[in-house]
Amino acid sequence: MKILCIGVNHQSAPLDVRQRLAFDESAADRALAVLTARFDDAEFVILSTCNRVEVYAASPVAAPPTADDLVGALADFHGLDVAELTPMIYRLDTEAAVRHLMMVTSSLDSMVVGESQIIGQVKAAFIRAVEAEATGKFLNRLFHRAFAAAKRVHGATEIGRRRTSVASVAVDFAARVFGGLGGKRVLVIGAGETAELAAVHLQSCGCGGVTIVNRSAARADQLAARLSARAVSWECLDECLRGSDIVVSSTASPEPILDAARIERLQAERGGRDWMLLDLAVPRDVDPAAARVAGVHLYDQERLAREVGQNLELRRREMDVASAIIDDEVSAFIDWFEVRDVGPLVERLEARLHEIGDEEVERLLKRLGEDIGAATRNEIRLAAHRIVHKLLHEPIEQLKTESRDGHAQMSMRVLRRLFRLDEERDDG
Prior knowledge:
Elements lengths: L1 E8 L5 H7 L3 H14 L4 E6 L3 E8 L7 H12 L3 H4 L4 E4 L1 H11 L11 H15 L5 H20 L9 H13 L7 E4 L3 H12 L5 E4 L3 H11 L2 E3 L4 H6 L3 E4 L10 H10 L5 E5 L16 E5 H39 L3 H26 L5 H31 L4 H10 L2 H7 L1
Helix pairs in contact: 5-7, 5-13, 6-7, 7-13, 8-9, 13-15, 14-15
């Protein structure tokens, strides 16, 4: 048997290509029906998310589909040119495909490492394939192993809880200050990418209204439209500052736009309640002395970047732990996969040789009589078992290799004949 994965993701193909290759539930059902009808002995799962489209297949080594067959089927289904698609497609075979699925399911291959959506998406794709009767024992076992790997990774690490962008870390600091962001009013000063990212993060955490202030009214209007926010003129800045709980400032000003005296005056007008100032600008938009004003919580790029650096180092260590878990789960699956055909034969061979060894040991012990004690007798029995295991180790490893390559049948027939294993099975 072989396991294949072909696909595209956010690293290999642009968004417009991924969108053209995407499957909704109905399309996935139709594609699974096409694949199972075309390739009788194969199993299939189709995974389609915003950031990836992948087809997983299991089939006999010498039988279709090949990776090229799968790429062709994917292109045909969506009416795309194979030649255009081919450079963007990755092709993974057996162990690489197994590892990839476990990395994907554990959110180690995501655009945002550690995000929690992907395991639900993989489960949904697998359930859809099961309901379509497109899977069998190989992909069933593989996907269940991938779910177990994801559970281990997320239980043993905090990989999904380490923020690694300045904007997301800034939002974490805001949540700590207020004990929650629900209903908090946000003022964004500036209309650049960093300010927008921070505003998006704040909105996703349940903040209340977002107001945009920028010297360029047109850019403020554009950002407000993207965020479903309110844009106001620069002249209204003080009024907006007084009404805000969280200020995100990221302008291109060469000098601070908010000096300490201004912040102190506005804070007094606000009644001294907690005020979060996130200065994401370089150079600074907010005078560092403003941090000394009671109730003001000022976080600038330097402090946020330091937190990001610490989180990146922690994530690197967590990735080492996660990678070790993936290695373990891949090894466990491949061990099963390589011996699935030869397993029953190996069990009969081991039983036959242990039976012969036990008979000879007992004959020897009978001749030795009472000259040796019970402990020595047990050592002799254990030694015989170890000899059998050592004699079988290399042949079994060779059988595993041949089984993986689809060439084990002749060796298995020879072993059955030499050791009369079929007779033993029939007699049992």
